[in-house]
Each structure stands twice: as C-alpha cells, then as structure tokens.
User: Fold this.
Amino acid sequence: MSIRPILIHPDPRLKKACAPVEGVSDDLRKLAEDMLETMYDAPGIGLAAPQVGVLQRLIVMDCVKEEGADPQPMVLFNPKVQWTSEALNTYEEGCLSIPEQYAEVERPAEVTVTWLDMHGAACEAKFDKLWATCVQHEIDHLDGKLFIDYLKPLKRQLITRKMVKLKRERAREKA
Ligand SMILES: [Zn+2]
Assistant:
C-alpha cells in the first residue's frame, strides 16, 4: 500500500463527472487500498478517487470516531443513492481537498445506497447520521461536486481564494 497525494481545490479534475468502473480488477483493489491508507493518514473519514486524480467511481470511508473502537473501512465501487429521507440533517463538513475549511451543510438524514464491494459483489445498505452525510459528500465528488458548492457564492469564493493562496505557498515551498 502507498499514500497518494491528495489534489487541492481548485483543480479541474475535482470538477469532472467520473466514469463507472467496469468490473473490480486487481488494479482497482490496489487503488482502493491506497485510498484507505491515504485517508487514514490524512486523517479523514472519507475519500473519493478523483481526489487522488483517478476519474473513476470509487469511494472509501470509515466514520468510526470513538476512541478505541474497531475501524470499519468501507470500499464502494459505483456507489449510487437509491433513496433519500425527507428528514434532513446538518453537519459541519470538511474535505481533504479543502484543508482546514469547515461549513454546515444540510443533507437528507438517511440514504439507501447500492454499490459493488472489493469482490465485485452487489451490496445495498441504509446509512444514517455521520455515515449518511459522508457517503453523500463522497458520491458528490464523483459528479464533480464539492461541499462548498452548497454554500452561498460569497463564502465559496472566500474559501476558494484561500485555497489558491495555500497552493501557491505549497508550490513555493517545493521550489
Ligand atoms: Zn471531500
């Protein structure tokens, strides 16, 4: 396994709709394992393939936050929201592609999602609480959508300007 660099917004690859995977190959399993390692290292609770520059429909997540609790890594190929509750929930969201910026986003409180697992088997589950918000946030990435797209334009522009500055500083450090 290896840690992959995470793309920082703004980046055209974070705005693209990703292609479905056609069968779960060894290469894709390796990518999923790298993404889990990258996510835990960051640390974060979710990561989508476009965030590591791969424009395919794959997300990983683990929303277990309680200290001492067993990790619960999940790998979802071609995840698709099949049902959303009318009830909404608000969480303060962040994103590994938008470091250190947080904002409240309102989303359906419960969702049913279908996907293919690491063995290519069809799965379906209902998610609630933080898991529901996380899975929706990650699936949005596969459609080129970021959590800041839910914010008012002024707030979104402010965050984007901060990220442009951050990227410039990081590029300078590397040079
Ligand atoms: Zn994100």
